[in-house]
Amino acid sequence: MTFTAPVLNYAQLAPMLIVLGGALIGVLIEAFGPRASRHASQLFITVASLVAAFAALLRVRTQSSVDAAMGSVGFDGAGVLLQGSILIIALLSVFLIADQENFTALAAAVPGSSEERESLQLDLRVTEVYPLTLFAVAGMLLFPVSTDLITLFVALEMLSLPLYLMAGLSRRRRLMSQESALKYFLLGAFSSAFFLFGAAYLYGYSNSVSFAGIQASVVGGSGNDVFLLLGIAFISVGLLFKVGAVPFHAWSPDVYQGAPTAITGFMAAATKVAAFGAILRIFYVAFANAEWQWKPALVLIAIVTMVFGSVVAITQRDVKRMLAYSSIAHAGFLLAGVIALSKSGLDSSIFYLFAYGIATVGAFGVVTLVRDSAGEVTDLNRWSGLGKRSPIIASVFAFFLLAFAGIPLTSGFIGKFSIFSAAYESGSTALLIAGVLSSAIAAFFYIRVIVLMFFKDPVEDGTSVVIPSALTSTTIAVTALITVVLGVFPAPLIKFIETTAFLIR
């Protein structure tokens, strides 16, 4: 028996390797670095890793080879665009994470214990959130470029496990934060099990775990169709869980509310880009010729997700839970691009993911600034009159809400218009009608918050807006600027995506 050394294209794998290297350096700093300079060192390494990874990604775009790891990782235009979106969103999110007020000083301490109080008094602050962020980003980068089920599962666990921990790092409302982390972990474990069952069924159907092999079996019709149906169903459960589609959304509101707000923004934006990248690849490549088997069910899930997310969001009195249900509705909108199964569906999905991710990071960045003496305030009743106390911050938040609603001159309008156009071209009329109606419903609760901020009098136990740090200000300003530019001048990015985005088949 001879051993054949694997052939790896390190130039194409460089973005992921750089991020993983930065994460390992962060672990070493946390273990051996001086406590006084630990935070600054971690922040520098994290930002430098993300910037270096993005620079390496720009070189990958010029590479002619598409196979980076013996058929397990493949680079194409769509994969590079999705990875670039993840890195940009992650960098902006790190600027929010740099605000240490959001995180507990010692995550391992029992909430309310003497150990926790002592760590706060002595400022024995740990900085494990930075290497955890980089590990999660590395998994996200691998997720949309995986070309077989085993690599896809590894990427799924790589991005999920750090997020389970990060969700429990909130400085305040520690029990709620840890409860949300536990819920996320348990439900995530179930979804991973479903994914593995699906992979096993697909292997039994096609005798292959690669997307190309599964596609070839679907085209040839050589396997057992029952295995194919079960495989598609179980794989879909695992992937739809990550994007919060109904009925796999139960974790989303609790985790969004309990996790540190900076982590919530990171999860809501970057995870959705990575997960939908994987969904697009597997449905556009592996399951493309089995459209008749999965499209009706996915159309139903998309419609229910849109309507449910928009309707339930109306009843929420917590701004983070409202944004969670808004995220669920947006997952339904994005599923329209998957269902379109066309080049325009792919292009519009990538644009929508980037635009939505940027606006989401900015919105949660604003939420981190609204506080009282006890910390962040997410109760919408106490946001009453915020526009009179802090007109600039309230105006920026209102602008992000208008982008979520799809109001013209924002990136959200261009994103929704393009993705609904793709759905219409594919013949999904019911999906289009449900999407438009859900958008109208969603506009109601977005505008309700705007009315609350600008046309209501401040309450006695209201809130104030803290002066943001330079990094937080940068994140909010950049995200707002991108949202405006993509709403007013979307043509350059749309054209770039149209000429660049393609999937290896």
Characteristics:
about 500 residues; mainly alpha; 3-stranded antiparallel β-sheet; globular
What is the topology, as strand order, of the major beta sheet? 2-1-3
Structural class by sheet pairing and helices: mainly alpha
**Element order: H for helix, E for strand:** HHHHHHHHHHHHHHEEHHHHEHH
Low-confidence stretches: none
How large a portion of the residues is in β-strands, by DSSP E?
Answer: under 5%
Query: Count the helices. How many?
Result: 20
Bulk shape: globular
> What gap, in angstroms, lies between the N and C termini?
33 Å
What do the pLDDT scores average to? 87
Number of strands: 3
Protein described:
- By secondary structure, the protein is mainly α.
- It has one domain.
- Helices cover 72% and strands 1% of the residues.
- The protein contains 20 helices and 3 strands.
- The chain has a 3-stranded antiparallel β-sheet, with no helix packed on it.
- Helix 5 packs antiparallel against helix 6 (149-166), helix 13 runs antiparallel to helix 14 and helix 17 (411-425) crosses helix 19 (470-488).
- The protein is globular, with a radius of gyration of 22 Å.
- The chain starts with 9 loop residues before the first helix and ends in a 5-residue tail after the last helix.
- The model has no long low-confidence stretch (mean pLDDT 87).
